[in-house]
From TrEMBL:
Entry-linked SMART domains: EFG_C
Phylogenetic classification of the source organism: Bacteria, Pseudomonadati, Thermodesulfobacteriota, Desulfobacteria, Desulfobacterales
Keywords: Cell inner membrane, Cell membrane, GTP-binding, Hydrolase, Membrane, Nucleotide-binding, Protein biosynthesis
EC number: 3.6.5.n1
Domain Tr-type G span(s) in chain numbering: 4-186
SUPFAM superfamilies named among the record's database cross-references: EF-G C-terminal domain-like, P-loop containing nucleoside triphosphate hydrolases, Translation proteins
PANTHER family per the UniProt record, alphabetical: TRANSLATION FACTOR GUF1 HOMOLOG, CHLOROPLASTIC (PTHR43512:SF4), TRANSLATION FACTOR GUF1-RELATED (PTHR43512)
Name of protein: Elongation factor 4
Subcellular location: Cell inner membrane
Pfam families, A to Z: EFG_C, GTP_EFTU, GTP_EFTU_D2, LepA_C
GO molecular function, one term: GTP binding
Record function comment: Required for accurate and efficient protein synthesis under certain stress conditions. May act as a fidelity factor of the translation reaction, by catalyzing a one-codon backward translocation of tRNAs on improperly translocated ribosomes. Back-translocation proceeds from a post-translocation (POST) complex to a pre-translocation (PRE) complex, thus giving elongation factor G a second chance to translocate the tRNAs correctly. Binds to ribosomes in a GTP-dependent manner.
Any one GO biological process: positive regulation of translation
CDD domains: EF4_II, EF4_III, LepA, lepA_C
UniProt source species: Desulforapulum autotrophicum (strain ATCC 43914 / DSM 3382 / VKM B-1955 / HRM2) (Desulfobacterium autotrophicum)
Amino acid sequence: IKQKNIRNFSIIAHIDHGKSTLSDRLIQLSGIISDRDFKDQILDSMDIERERGITIKSQTVSLPYTGNDGEEYLLNLIDTPGHVDFSYEVSRALASCEGAFLLVDASQGVEAQTLANIYLAMEHDLAIVPVINKIDLPSAEIEWVKDQIDEDLGLDSETALLVSAKTGVGVANVFEAAVAKIPPPQGDENAPLKALIFDSHYDPYRGIIVHVRVFEGSLAPGEKIAFLSSDSIYKVEEVGIFQIKRRPVDRIRAGQVGYMIAGIKLISDVKCGDTLTHSGNRCKAAMKGFRDPNPVVFSSMYPVASDEYPELTEALEKLKLNDASLVYEKDSSAALGFGYRCGFLGLLHLEVVQERLEREYDLSLILTSPSVRYEITRTDGTIQIIDNPSLYPDPAEIEKTREPFIKASIIVPDRYMGAVMQVSMEHRGVSTNYQYLTSNRIEMKFTLPLAEVVYEFYDRLKSVTQGYGSFDYEVAGYQETDLVKLDFLVNGERVDALSQLVHRDKAVDRAKNACKKLRDEIPRQMFKIAIQGAIGGKIISRETVSAYRKDVTAKCYGGDISRKRKLLEKQKKGKKRMKMVGSVEIPQSAFLSVLKSG
Ligand code: GTP
């Protein structure tokens, strides 16, 4: 295929505006997959994505298309996630594109992440083609959305495509628009190879599969390649393109997006953002690469079974291949043994990583309460950055503490203005500004402590605005705060993995909630168990789990033997998910419940 007949583009949108549905339609129309093998959300290949109905990973698919001019084209669609936690993933995907379709829901209009994503696309100098989706909806307001496209986005709304990804109306025009409006890639096919690694994943049979965008030169099996950052050298076994399945080809050339297999087992050799070249004929300079991810939420992870620590280590390494934004380092806890301190881009990212580790690597994990990064000035003048409660100094040695704040932008219909104000105040937010985008939609700006957003702010916002509130944020520096370390004691013994750093005003509520949850989650044991929340030496909340004989079969009144056996089995299985802390067995679920008791 000729370079001038290749198009690389992605679809960007606010969450739920129909990106995955539109991708599905395009894939179906292209005919690369039979109707029998087709399923909805086909690019969302992970279970978590399908269950939650969201895209987490970006995926590439190469679609063949015969243009109106009779030429054969290869349209590479790079699907991207919509949630604010994954904008790092979006930004990496965009580095491989020349253009983007900006999808706007005809009934919702432009929202916070529509704006955030268009800025990302502009940073990458992409051609942007507006698409108005869901025109089949009775509540579609096409003219209203066109006004927003002109005014809020500064794009020409006359060029906007009108589609319904659901019914298929107008979808075929997307192909022709890709050909006409998105420039073909450039780059000299005969120059030395220069390919950008934008993703990778681990295949148990083939080793590491490296996802690349070739910018210059070309790549074929049998050739010797080098990774610029590590200078390790491999012989290429296979190259190909993504068409839901991997499809091997003879050679991938400048302008193409595809994959390379070279029997790579050493995970540390493959880095996202690194440049790939031929070892004998190297390109002059490395590609620009990607900015480092900026984790904002931290939590420690421990295997429930301490002997699974090596498995956790290996799983994290492999997951990191496929999730370049994950960062982690060794950590240990008196209660839980060895584990890892991990940094995440947000709470959803944390949940996704935990779920992927548990499902894809069959681990059972305990996570500690998520924390942001605090800046502590000690009385001796030294400054310390901490994200781990276990490193919190003696309060007598603290001069002052500062915590990270964010600038949040919230777009809502104006009838929800009061409700949003209320929620924001409950979360220590300060309103800084607002403006009407259209006659009844308003953009409100707040500064909020990041720690509040990490907990439940987003869920609360969604619920008080009945789903109409859209939210985007950026981290915006540190402000002084009044922090305390909240500890929990189980039968008098401090469980370090439960400690958390919280604002003083929230400490009592947090402690009470957490103690209640622990009481509900910790099964009765042969003796009474006291659960206490404390700041320093001072107990601020208390609950008790009364003693009970743990005979689960007692409630089966003799009778049904198989049911009895099932219960015993269940109890045995449950044991594997228990952690002995002192003399008390604490289930994994108890740790998790505290994590969410903001
Ligand atoms: P993320 O992958 O999480 O970013 O969301 P998304 O933008 O991919 O949205 P998705 O394709 O999952 O669509 C969200 C919802 O809108 C789904 O319930 C779709 O069925 C629905 N939807 C998508 N396109 C249309 C359309 O053209 N018309 C109507 N009526 N509904 C649509």
